[in-house]
UniProtKB/TrEMBL annotation:
Alphabetized Gene3D superfamilies for the sequence: Aldolase class I
Name of protein: Radical SAM domain protein
Record keywords: Iron, Iron-sulfur, Metal-binding, S-adenosyl-L-methionine
Pfam families the record matches: Radical_SAM
UniProt-listed PROSITE patterns: RADICAL_SAM (PS51918)
UniProt keyword Membrane, yes or no: no
Molecular functions (GO terms): catalytic activity; iron-sulfur cluster binding; metal ion binding
Protein's UniProt keywords contain Iron: yes
CC cofactor: [4Fe-4S] cluster
InterPro entries found in the cross-reference section: Aldolase_TIM, BchE-like, Elp3/MiaA/NifB-like_rSAM, rSAM, rSAM_sf
Radical SAM core domain residues: 133-378
Length: 392
């Protein structure tokens, strides 16, 4: 008689993983919601938003990454839960009380309940459009909503909402809703990310009050569950903070600021319609680092198209070098995804600089990777940043 495949359980304080040999692996948060899975050779990540991201290798060096449609999502979740329930049925007779409690929580969820979480999520959050890759598992608190600029030619992340800054009272209410929604899954989150696009342009007195609310609601520090506070700064020049302001933020637990430099080339930077300039970005980074806060600097691979490619690479590397990044910093290389409904393409056509082909994009990525590695101290991370891999 053929033997049944071995089923294993790995119980961690904040998550549980069930595995049937190496073919089917599913992990759940403490609420019993699936968070990651490997099924039929494909990886899935389910975010708090209820979105499910698919990731798989389709050919050598070629990965498929995309969010599932509603129909695909329901099918994958149904399949995943069937596998999970089957594994639980086999494990349960010998399981300890703690594991049984986890099994009960997992069994609570069916596809309809998981899908209903999507609506609930949108009563708590505005959609979380993007995070830096090392913050995908942060707890996002939307101190602001949207982007105060919202006019970069390649970016549609926040076009769906007006910019607003929470008052301390409305921010506290938001935080309490977030805590209820995330529930026991909170333990998986080790950092606080202040949303949305530019939380650090909040004028300092208001930011101080909002950070005070964060500290009243969470314990933050090297030995606490939440290790630090993180945020984007995507606008350089305007609303500039001083060294003293950043020192105050460092003392309030801000550990890293993520800057969308996109390009160190003046012409490309202007074509993207980013506010400020590469020179102002250098100044901002130097001030932030002088205050003891690390930076994550994002470069757009392929920005400026074919005609400006050499300038983009050369001046981006020079700009990064002038920022003096160190091992505590991260340089992200993010392949430019051009949304169809933005002025970027028409603008590139007007200057006769078509987008890079896939091969040229891969070559520029390699050029930037090698170039950045050659100018940063050993230990400084240079990381690929695929925005299609994001799910919150
Ligand atoms: S500043 Fe950042 S978030 Fe705002 S429009 Fe530009 S790229 Fe998008």
């Amino acid at each position: 008689m053929p033997t049944k495949p071995a089923i294993t359980i790995a119980l961690q304080p904040q998550y549980l993983t069930l595995a049937e040999e190496l073919r089917t692996i599913i992990s759940f948060d403490r609420e019993g919601r699936p968070i990651v899975a490997f099924l039929h050779g494909t990886n899935y990540v389910r975010g708090l938003s209820g979105d499910v991201l698919l990731k798989r290798v389709v050919s050598r060096g070629h990965k498929e990454r995309r969010k599932l449609s509603a129909a695909e999502r329901r099918a994958v979740l149904g399949d995943l839960l069937n596998h999970a329930h089957r594994m639980i049925d086999r494990l349960e007779p010998q399981a300890a009380a703690e594991a049984r409690a986890w099994f009960d929580r997992i069994r609570h969820w069916d596809v309809d309940r998981l899908e209903a979480e999507r609506e609930r999520f949108l009563t708590v959050y505005k959609p979380i459009s993007i995070l830096p890759p090392d913050q995908y598992r942060a707890l996002v608190l939307q101190a602001t909503e949207g982007c105060s600029w919202n006019r970069c030619h390649f970016c549609t992340f926040y076009r769906d909402r007006a910019f607003r800054i929470h008052t301390p009272a409305s921010f506290r209410e938001h935080i309490q809703q977030v805590k209820t929604f995330v529930g026991a899954g909170l333990g998986l989150r080790k950092a606080i990310f202040l949303g949305d696009a530019n939380a650090l342009i909040i004028p300092q007195p208001r930011l101080r009050d909002l950070l005070q609310v964060v500290h009243e609601e969470f314990t933050i520090g090297p030995d606490a569950d939440f290790k630090g506070i993180y945020a984007f700064l995507d606008i350089f020049g305007a609303e500039r903070k001083t060294l003293a302001d950043y020192r105050e933020l460092a003392a309030a637990g801000v550990r890293r600021v993520y800057l969308g430099l996109e390009s160190g080339d003046e012409t490309v930077f202007r074509l993207l319609n980013k506010p400020g300039s590469p020179a102002e970005a250098i100044e901002a980074v130097r001030t932030i680092k002088a205050a003891g806060i690390a930076v994550g600097i994002i470069l757009l691979v392929g920005a400026g198209g074919e005609r400006l490619a050499a300038d983009h690479v050369q001046h981006s590397l020079a700009t990064i070098a002038a920022m003096h990044p160190g091992p505590e910093d991260i340089i992200y290389l993010s392949p430019l995804m051009i949304p169809p409904d933005t002025p970027y393409l028409a603008q590139m056509q007007a200057i006769d600089s078509p987008p890079l082909s896939e091969a040229a994009l891969a070559a520029q990525l390699e050029q930037l990777k090698q170039g950045v590695r050659a100018i940063v101290p050993a230990g400084t991370k240079v990381v690929l940043y695929h925005i299609e891999e994001f799910v919150y």
